[in-house]
Structure formats: C-alpha cells, structure tokens
Write a structure and sequence with these properties.
The protein is of the alpha/beta class and about 450 residues long. About 30% of the residues lie in helices and about 25% in strands. The strands form five sheets. An eight-stranded mixed beta sheet has the order 1-10-12-11-13-16-14-15, sandwiched between helices.
Length: about 450
C-alpha cells in the first residue's frame, strides 16, 4: 500500500469535498452493474449536476471482438433456511448477490449451495464483491461469519433477476473549448455499493465537469461515465471517428482513500499528459508513485490498445487490489473522506491548469538578447515578480521559445517552477515579444 498521504485525524475539509461526499452518499445504495436500471439511476442523479447526454446501445451489438451483453436487473434475492429465516438478503447489501446472477428459485442442500457461495475468510465480517458478466451463473456473497453459521439444512435460494435483451447505457458530457482538440476524462459507473471504487471517480468527474463548464477553456473536454471494459470498448467502437481529436486523457478512479497518488503512464509513456501529471505530483508535499503502462487495470487498457494508442493515463490513489477493502463491503462511506476527495480534485485542477497553459511560443526577436530594461521588463523593483526566478524565467522563455519547446520543457530545462515560467511567458506575450503556436487546427 502507498504511504498514507492523509491522516485520519485531519479535520479540515472544504465545502467541495463535502459536496462530492454527499453525492457519493446519494449514489452509494444503488445496485449498479455493467447494464441495467442501476446505471440509468446513477446517470440520472449525475444529470442533476451536469447536462449529461445518455446513450443506449442495444444488447447483441457487435463491438470489435465483443458483444453488448443482455441487460441485467434485479428485484430481490435471499437464502432462507428450513425455518423460514432469511440468512442472506439482498435488501441488506446489494453485494450479497453475484453481480449478473441468473434468476433462481429452488431448494438446495448445503453442499450444493456451497458451490455458489463466496466469502473472505481473511476478513470474516466483510462481504466480497464478485461478478459473472460473461458466464451465466448465480451465486451469493456473504461474510465468512455468516457462512460459518450455515448448518446442514435444505435452503431456499431465490434470486429474482432478469437477463434480457435491452441496452448498455453510458453518459457523456462534452464541453466545447476554443480548440477542437480534446481532453478525455473517463470514469466507470458499473460497481454496486462501493465508494472508492467506482464512486470516488464518478463524484470527482461530475464536480470537475461542473466547474470546467463555467470556465473559458483552450481545450474541449469530453467526460465519459461508462461501465468498465465493455463500456470503453463500446464507446470506442461507436465513436471511432471522434478519437482523432483526443490529445490528452485520464482515467479517474480510486481517488477517495487515504493513500498517496499513483499515476499510471499512458502506453506512449512520455505523452504531454504523462509529463504534466508527473510535474504536478512533484509539486505536492505528499508521496506519490509513477507506474509504467501495463495492459492490465482500468479502461486505459482500451484507450491505449495499439489500434488507438491514445495518450491516456490513469490517476488514482492506492492502486486496485493494493488496499484490503478493495472489492468488498468495507469499501464504504467510512473508507472515503471529503478531505481525500478534495485533495484529489485540487490535484486534477492543477493538472488541467498546466495542460491549459502549457503552450509553445516563438520569440519574434531571436537574434541576440532583447534589451529587457528598455522595455521595462528588467529588474522591476517592487514589480510583481521582481525576483531572480522571474528575471531568469524571462531569459529562459525568450531563449527556448523556438516553437519546439513547451513551457513545461522550459521549466524542466531551467529547473524553475512552471508557474514562474508561465507568468514570464504571459508577460512577454503581453508585450508582443512572443507569438503562440501549437494550435494544431
Ligand atoms: Zn473495481
């Protein structure tokens, strides 16, 4: 597990963290899956905050090597003993049912029932989260404590679910910026009652979109709220023509726990988004981890498949599988804190600010140094940035603004922080000493 970046004792929080946490609390009880009413209810709630377009793709649609599955819905499920007592009940936790279980209604002996039960002996009071999307099966997940109480009896197992032709539903929100070039922000909406996985990504994406829509933006932003794997495959299949506009992207997930940040690079490895996230994480006081791309994990697997190879990285705190509560009932409202959500949001803001301002310029007077003093740019005593960094930033920006170096490149080359470099560039631009390039379109 990554080192703890946020201590549990940390009391301070912000209004934004609380708002995201309150959206999480509203979404928590819903039984989501890769298709079905739970996804639609979730998207309808997000729609109260941002004007999401909701898209439906019919079951049976071929999407690359896959097929949109039948739609799954569930009303109730339980295991009842011969005395009529319900021992496990979906009404108490939607994790109790193997997600995508086929309907079942029959009596069964304990030994036959055991074939369909899932527990976590190492955490006897937690319910595991298990799915069977692509193999028709049924099952129950329960605490190991509940399991140990099962006696030799004949049980009634009842799962009132349906697996029928319907749709895969996803939400999409596009914010038009000055450029057609897009930043993709993708998050999953397929997990039932768990918080860090997926709800932290949903809440952060929603509030980020809500905030960005009020801003004047250079890039356009596309937010996707999609079911895991099949949702990304379906979106890419249906929207292949739009993919060329995606210049940067992030899969956001697992951003509400107390761990330090983890960034998984895009398959390209040194894309602008990779450099920017790393540069932002470096400015934070907390520990962080950078991972190289691997074809295992979240939906970056699809965005970074070789036929697309998009510059899409994955930002999270503790990676999946590395915190004990992962995919269990303990990934709940106690695991996630408003403070962690807020700090994650701040980090994403910083990433977007850097993306928006990481331009390339050309110095229009490249022969010898400019006479900065004459232009009031040298040693502005009492001026805004009349410090050594500022003076040096002016020189670095002028020298390296040859159309090939971005401001981040200049910041790295000079060792001066991005903010100073960016401020110096704005000042020089204001004085009409630089022209901006890099607008591909
Ligand atoms: Zn998951």
């Amino acid at each position: 597990m990554t080192e703890t970046a946020i201590t549990k004792s940390e009391k301070t929080t912000t209004a934004l963290g609380e708002q995201m946490y309150s959206l999480m609390t509203e979404l928590f009880p819903i039984c989501r899956s890769i298709t079905g009413d739970g996804v639609r209810q979730t998207l309808d709630i997000i729609k109260k905050d941002i004007p999401l377009s909701i898209h439906k793709v019919p079951s049976g649609t071929k999407v690359f090597d896959w097929e949109v599955p039948k739609e799954w819905n569930i009303n109730e499920a339980y295991i009842r003993n011969s005395r009529g007592e319900k021992l496990v009940d979906f009404a108490n936790s939607n994790l109790h049912v193997l997600n995508y279980s086929t309907p079942v209604d029959r009596s069964i002996t304990l030994s036959d029932l055991k074939e369909h039960l899932y527990t976590l002996p190492e955490h006897p009071d937690w319910i595991p989260y298990r799915t069977s999307y692509y193999k028709e099966d049924w099952g129950f997940c329960m605490t190991h404590t509940q399991f140990q109480k099962l006696t030799d009896d004949v049980y009634d197992v009842h799962i009132d679910s349906s697996l029928e032709d319907g749709h895969l539903t996803y939400g999409e929100y596009y914010i038009a910026g000055e450029l057609p070039d897009e930043v993709l922000i993708s998050t999953r909406v397929c997990h039932p009652s768990m918080c860090n996985d997926n709800l932290s990504g949903i809440c952060i994406s929603t509030y980020l979109a809500k905030e960005l829509r009020r801003k004047k933006l250079r890039y356009s932003y596309r937010f996707l709220f999609i079911p895991g794997t099949i949702g990304a495959i379906t979106w890419l299949y249906v929207n292949e023509a739009k993919v060329k506009n995606i210049k940067h992207g992030l899969v956001v997930s697992l951003l509400g726990d107390a761990g330090g940040f983890t960034y998984k690079r895009s398959r390209q490895g040194n894309a602008e988004i990779d450099q920017i996230v790393e540069a932002v994480l470096k400015t934070k006081d907390t520990s962080y981890k950078i991972l190289n791309f691997s074809p295992y994990g979240d939906d970056e697997r699809q965005f970074c498949s070789p036929g697309f190879n998009l510059p899409v990285g994955s930002i999270m705190r503790t990676p999946f599988g590395e915190y004990p509560e992962y995919h269990t009932s303990a990934d709940n409202l106690d695991l996630v804190t408003p403070v962690a959500l807020d700090a994650s949001m701040q980090m994403l803001h910083d990433v977007i600010n850097m993306l928006e301002t990481n331009k390339k310029y050309v110095n229009i007077n490249p022969k010898c140094e400019l006479h900065l003093g004459k232009r009031g740019l040298y040693n502005m005593v009492g001026g805004e940035w009349a410090g050594r960094d500022y003076q040096l930033s002016l020189l670095w920006v002028l020298n390296f603004s040859d159309g090939n170096h971005s401001l981040l490149d200049i910041s790295k080359e000079s060792g001066i922080n991005f903010e100073s470099i960016s401020k110096a560039a704005s000042k020089l631009f204001e004085h009409k000493l630089l022209i901006e390039i890099g607008h591909d379109s």
